[in-house]
Design brief:
Blueprint lengths: L6 H13 L3 H12 L10 E7 L44 E3 L3 H9 L5 E5 L2 E3 L4 H9 L8 E4 L9 E3 L2 E2 L6 H9 L9 H16 L9 H4 L1 H8 L4 H36 L18 H10 L1 H20 L5 E6 L18 H7 L10 H26 L12 E6 L1
Parallel strand pairs: 1-8, 1-9, 2-3, 5-8
Antiparallel strand pairs: 3-4, 6-7
Length: about 400
């Protein structure tokens, strides 16, 4: 019979398994030593840009599958990037909704594909959303596991950390920036240097002995074990939970300290890309005043979307987070100057007039107005894509290293 595996042996084994995805870094280190060129890819990011409100499906869809030649009219502003696009149609959420209005039903199922979305006792219930699922896998490597920003409300809830935990969206750009960089200075990561440093660290750590004993938990482990033997079952569980919590905090602090050290080195030798500079509103202007203008003035609306898009790009560029969801648009917004047909400029009114059970039963003028609104939104999304495509991360662009979902 084999002896039981010790905790320290298990931790070492887990550490080896966690290092496996970075084995290419060892090759980078050897290549550098040999003077060979290297091409280190930065991490993959996931960005979701979701437009609130009803849309015009026939102006989103291709008439037939195959290579993208001529894009549908709503997506035409993305023509410059069509080689980077994958256009998916025919998808459907097949789950049920209960006790929800139409806006809530669309919002709750939008990124969750929940089999059942509902409200019970005023509590929102759906399922984990795709952005939060991604954050569970990659969020431990960044300052913020995920970032949820833009215009959202109690009806249009998209992100759910769990079935009963919707994630609030921050709509104030200054608050978003302060959350991202409180106590930090934005800096462009040098991914080549980081990969070489990580490889060197892995080689060094693999040769170390009892480095885990530096942990506070390990220093008191024997005392804790003696105490545990004197406790009842409930108190043992409580002690275990406490020690686990302390261990989690230790790991988080160690990760943050390591990241700050990395960024200090990056500041001395930054990567090749130039940081995006979001033009934040003046501190002395309350955000609600700016937000009110967003709803009434398309020029301010576009300015707001550009600003929030820049914050998303900056979050990715500085590796503050690798998962970001941006909600743009609002049903209550007006679009004078964007809409060139009819007399109605209120988005929500047009959505009701321009939609029906059958397209031929909808008001064609209102439907064209809705199409123009969404083409306008796509033009702003295209600016985001163009910005990311132009940011050099050392042989590849920020867009090359990102998965973007544009949806409505």
């Amino acid at each position: 019979m084999h002896p039981p595996i010790s905790r320290r042996t298990l931790l070492r084994g887990a550490g080896a398994m966690l290092a496996l995805p970075w084995l290419e870094s060892l090759a980078v280190r050897r290549a550098r030593a040999a003077g060979e060129p290297t091409n280190v890819r930065p991490p993959l990011r996931m960005g979701i840009v979701s437009v609130t409100g009803g849309t015009v499906l026939e102006s989103w869809r291709l008439k037939e599958g195959g290579p993208l030649d001529k894009l549908p009219s709503i997506l035409r502003p993305l023509d410059f990037a069509k080689q980077d696009l994958l256009l998916l149609t025919g998808l459907s959420h097949s789950g049920r909704t209960e006790n929800l209005n139409g806006h809530e039903a669309c919002g709750y199922t939008h990124l969750t594909a929940a089999p059942l979305a509902t409200k019970q006792g005023g509590k929102s219930l759906a399922g984990i959303s795709v952005d939060q699922l991604a954050a569970q896998h990659v969020g431990q490597d960044t300052f913020l596991p995920s970032l949820e920003i833009g215009l959202s409300n109690h009806e249009t809830r998209y992100s759910f950390r769990s079935a009963d935990t919707p994630v609030p969206y921050e709509d104030d750009p200054r608050h978003v920036y302060e959350r991202m960089f409180r106590g930090r200075t934005p800096v462009v990561p040098n991914w080549q240097r980081r990969a070489a440093a990580k490889a060197a660290t892995e080689v060094r750590d693999s040769a170390q002995g009892d480095s885990y004993d530096a942990s506070v938990i390990d220093l008191v482990r024997e005392q804790a074990q003696r105490l545990r033997g004197k406790l009842g079952r409930l108190d043992r569980d409580k002690l275990d939970q406490y020690l686990f919590s302390v261990r989690s905090i230790e790991k988080r602090i160690a990760t943050l300290e390591a990241r700050l050290k990395e960024e200090a080195l990056d500041a001395a030798s930054p990567g090749p890309g130039k940081l995006v500079d979001p033009k934040l509103p003046a501190k002395d202007i309350p955000f609600y005043k700016f937000r009110d203008l967003v709803y009434r003035d398309p020029e301010k609306h576009g300015e707001y979307i550009r600003l929030m898009s820049d914050l998303m790009v900056l979050a990715f560029q500085t590796d503050t987070t690798r998962v970001c969801t941006l909600a743009i648009g609002d049903d209550g917004a007006y679009f004078p100057g964007v809409i060139t047909v009819g007399y109605e400029k209120h988005c929500h009114t047009l959505e009701h007039q321009g939609n029906a059970g059958r397209v031929e039963d909808a008001d064609p003028i209102a439907r064209e107005a809705c199409r123009q609104i969404h083409a306008w939104y796509t033009g702003l999304f295209a600016e985001l894509v163009r910005t990311m495509k132009g940011i050099d991360e050392g042989g590849s662009s920020l867009l090359d290293n990102s998965l973007l979902l544009y949806t409505s």
